[in-house]
Write a structure and sequence with these properties.
Elements: E1 3-11, E2 15-22, E3 26-28, E4 31-34, E5 40-42, E6 48-53, H1 55-75, H2 82-97, E7 104-111, E8 117-124, E9 129-135, E10 141-147, H3 149-165, H4 169-181, E11 194-199, E12 210-212, E13 215-218, E14 221-222, E15 235-237, H5 241-252, E16 267-270, H6 271-274, H7 288-291
Parallel strand pairs: 12-15
Antiparallel strand pairs: 1-2, 1-10, 2-11, 3-4, 5-6, 6-7, 7-8, 8-9, 9-16, 12-13, 13-14
Helix pairs in contact: 1-2, 3-4
Length: 298
């Protein structure tokens, strides 16, 4: 399984930023297969995703979409927007899942044409094939985790507490992933951490080296024993194990949630209506309801 998150934010400290992160453990029926899993993917331009569920459809869909988006951006003055990138991903992810009835859940991040940080949730399953859109204005942030239910609740509650305490939300998310990867209570979470981020105005995602608890990670690979002084400076993540542990006790022993989180529906589309072969490769402006605020978190 997976634990990861997609994040979008707009504030004075970081400006407009979107990010994805995940662990690297692959497992089946609770048993570890490998710690070399890839769960975060560029989708071309300033969009990326993190995925939980079956791995092969995600790899296939991401590769196809990235090539389409990058090819378009090289040849056109108008770059492909977040709405169209999500439409493409939903179509190819559903198509890749259908033959084996596989399931996937992806959190996709990027920027709308008007510059608003935006997040979409793509769900492929036997009972639901849908896309939900969210965006934020200045002062707002949304973090959406994917993965095992217990781990997702843990990291979601951690975000709520971090907001109240004024902590860095992306650093908090990475710290919680690292904390869970060190616990036997979460055997399907582990390996190294991958982080990708993009600021508004950047043409592509960046994937920094990250340093946490004297460990060095890059794109889901543990490079602690292989670091070289000529490598780029790592982003240092302040890991507060005591804070994570207290949150763990509060949620799982005292059973005292930070907040009863209700997921806002955002703008919901059925994939078969959103992504049809007839209109799949046509460029669209952002839907008018996005601009009027329907896609914002309620």
């Amino acid at each position: 399984m997976t634990i990861g998150f997609g994040a979008i934010a707009w504030n004075e400290e970081v400006g407009r930023i979107v990010a994805v992160a995940a662990d690297s453990r692959l497992s089946h029926n609770g048993n570890t297969i490998s710690d070399a899993g890839v769960k975060t993917f560029e989708l071309g331009g300033s969009s990326a995703m993190v995925v939980a569920g079956n791995a092969l459809p995600a790899i296939s869909a991401a590769d196809i979409v990235r090539q389409i988006v990058d090819n378009h951006n090289r040849k056109s003055d108008k770059r492909m927007g977040f709405y169209d990138t999500t439409r493409l991903l939903a179509f190819f992810l559903k198509r890749a899942c259908e033959p084996e009835s596989w399931c996937c859940k992806a959190t996709v991040v990027g920027f709308l044409d008007n510059g608003l940080p935006s997040l979409s949730i793509v769900i492929i399953s036997k009972i639901e094939n849908s896309v939900r859109f969210f965006n934020v204005e200045k002062g707002g942030s949304i973090f959406f985790p994917v993965g095992t239910a217990e781990a997702c609740d843990f990291i979601r509650q951690g975000f709520e507490l971090a907001k109240k305490e004024g902590k860095s939300l992306i650093s908090t998310g990475l710290s919680l992933i690292y904390y869970m990867s060190e616990l036997s209570a979460f055997p399907t979470i582990g390996g190294a951490i991958s982080l990708g981020c993009c600021n508004y105005g950047d043409q592509y995602f960046s994937w920094p080296h990250i340093s946490i608890d004297d460990r060095l990670f890059y794109r889901g690979i543990d490079l602690t024993e292989n670091a070289r002084p000529t490598w780029p400076m790592a982003e240092r993540i302040e890991y507060d194990q005591e804070w994570c542990s207290k949150l763990d006790v509060r949620l799982h022993q005292d059973v005292e949630p930070i907040q009863e989180v209700v997921t806002a529906p955002g703008c919901i589309y059925q994939i078969d209506d959103l992504s049809t072969p007839e209109t799949l490769f046509q460029l669209h402006n952002d839907p008018t309801e996005f601009v009027s605020g329907v896609a914002r978190e309620h």
